[in-house]
């Protein structure tokens, strides 16, 4: 069982979570519990690091931001003990959850022995999500939203029947239910669809957690901590038939405001200039996402537009400015007021016209497209950020995803 930040925000809510854990255990199940920091706490801790220094050591960042989950795991253990349950917290280093790297550390392995012993003794282990440890004993964190990955990794390590992700919505919807009230809850989605949805911005599950669940075949269920409702199963292709549902061409719409656009004007149109732009960015570990290049009808210069995560914008600008002469571009323009909106669905593989429908729907509302990218099961467009809600709603309706009016 994993509980997100909203579910852990304050003693009242932690008490409610403890009640859900108690119910699970009393139903005869063995449960391990992974918790997030209280809502807003990780943001607050990240902000402290930024204020302390504009460039901070990732090792020390991890020391600071991992602390939020330590607090909630201890509080939940205390609360469960107060209800007469045999609960105890175990920090990442006590299991251990072995990782490499800092700030977005990778899980290398989890020793299941401690958890198995706790299960054998009829106990409940409460584990801080988001955190791991390096072989040298340094605390690490798994990247924002990483408690989902902690939960799936632990579920895989103990070969759990399933990994229940309790959050502040009651499942995975056709789009973010907070911006489209007529979004529909999906009874089930495949790992593949969820992976694509998460990677283009549906933050209900961290992308890495879905990839891990897919590789380790861990059935994941997303459900509400606040309402007793069925939730959404995230399962393999082979199991999707068990769910009585109509498969739609498009599974869902997602948006990501965390992208920044860069445009280089006057880039020499010759072999090697594009490589000269992207090679140094790749070397710096910057993930370039969408790319558009204009091809000159005459003359020798083209424009090159692409996106990077907003957090990498300053670094990207510095790298390119330094190489301005070597690359030979005129101007470097940037824009952070953009959003990437994507439609995802495995049905796209066998259906033409999904992208055209998207462009038409956006055109109908006068929304200009700045960049486009596609994959086998996804179409994404970059548009001005001010149109986020309008675009998501229009596409949701256009692909026939709106729920019936419930009044
Ligand atoms: P937690 O703190 O529990 O980890 P998150 O805030 O990380 O919760 O994720 C839950 C949020 O994800 C929801 O409140 C919702 O606004 C957002 N979300 C975005 N896309 C979707 C979607 N397709 N289905 C459900 N929730 C979504
Ligand atoms: N507390 C961490 C974050 O806000 C991890 C998580 O909640 O999943 O990113
Ligand atoms: Mg989350």
Full CATH superfamily name of the largest domain: Acetylglutamate kinase-like
Give a short account of the largest sheet: 8 strands, mixed
| Outline | globular
User: How many independent structural domains?
Assistant: 2
Rounded radius of gyration (Å):
23 Å
Which percent range describes the beta-strand content?
A: 15-25%
Determine the number of helices (DSSP H or I, runs of at least 4 residues). Answer: 13
Helix content: 25-40%
How widely separated are the two ends?
33 Å
Hetero groups in this structure are: adenosine-5'-diphosphate, aspartic acid, magnesium ion
What is the name of the CATH topology of the largest domain? Carbamate kinase
Give the low-confidence spans. Answer: none
CATH architecture annotation of the largest domain: 3-Layer(aba) Sandwich
Strand order of the largest sheet: 3-6-2-1-9-11-12-10
Q: Any idea of the CATH class of the largest domain?
A: Alpha Beta
Characterise the protein shown here.
By secondary structure, this protein is an alpha/beta fold. It folds into 2 domains: 2-245, Carbamate kinase; 260-335, ACT domain (Alpha-Beta Plaits, 2-Layer Sandwich), CATH 3.30.70.260. It is built from 13 helices and 20 strands. The strands form 5 sheets. Strands 3-6-2-1-9-11-12-10 form an 8-stranded mixed sheet, with helices on both faces. Strands 13-18-20-19 form a 4-stranded antiparallel sheet, sandwiched between helices. It has a 4-stranded antiparallel sheet with strand order 15-16-14-17, covered by helices on one side. A hairpin with a 2-residue loop joins strand 19 and strand 20. It is globular, with a radius of gyration of 23 Å. The mean pLDDT is 95. Aspartic acid binds next to helix 6.
